[in-house]
């Protein structure tokens, strides 16, 4: 189905903000509404995994950005200014049951499955995931929609 990402992200940001009482900023850098061919339910699940992590591992506002890269691929960024992930842990966080000790001491009570599930959903939807993080500064997850998502009905 074609999803209007501008509407989808506006609604998702509102829903998450109301459910968790956390400020979510949605910033679209697109000139027009962006449509993408994907599975809306699965995309929502993916987005909420990243929003939930941003909520758990930061205290400030969370930002969702919609943009295009230089290959004209659509990007969704989810950014937090939280505890971040150090560079040696970064490749491991998508593994099943992997949690960082420091994060565990924050008593957020997860089991380490969120990101491994996210990886599986992203693969099924043909979405590339990029994770950038600096310890003590924050984390940005990027969803990259390649050209296959552009086949408008
Ligand atoms: P759950 O099973 O409830 O999702 P979890 O959050 O521990 O638990 P993952 O979502 O798989 O599991 O994340 C794995 C680990 O990666 C986390 O324990 C945390 O240490 C780290 N992490 C994930 N997202 C962030 C983030 N936005 N900021 C800092 N650390 C993060």
Automatic annotation (TrEMBL):
Q: Subcellular localization, per the record?
A: Cell membrane
Histidine kinase domain residues are 1-149
**Name of the protein:** histidine kinase
Instruction: Give the organism, scientific name.
Output: Cytobacillus horneckiae
At the highest ranks, the source species' classification is: Bacteria, Bacillati, Bacillota, Bacilli, Bacillales
């Amino acid at each position: 189905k074609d999803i209007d990402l501008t509407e989808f992200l506006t609604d998702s940001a509102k829903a998450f903000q109301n459910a968790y009482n956390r400020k979510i900023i949605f910033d679209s850098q697109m000139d027009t509404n962006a449509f993408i061919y994907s599975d809306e339910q699965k995309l929502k699940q993916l987005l909420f995994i990243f929003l939930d992590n941003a909520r758990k591992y930061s205290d400030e506002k969370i930002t969702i950005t919609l943009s295009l890269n230089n290959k004209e691929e659509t990007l969704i960024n989810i950014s937090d200014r939280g505890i971040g992930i150090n560079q040696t842990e970064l490749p491991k966080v998508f593994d099943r049951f992997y949690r960082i000790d420091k994060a565990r001491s924050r008593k957020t009570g997860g089991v380490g499955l969120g990101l491994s599930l996210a990886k599986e959903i992203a693969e099924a939807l043909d979405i590339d995931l990029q994770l950038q993080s600096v310890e003590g500064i924050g984390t940005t997850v990027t969803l990259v929609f390649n050209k296959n998502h552009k086949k408008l009905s």
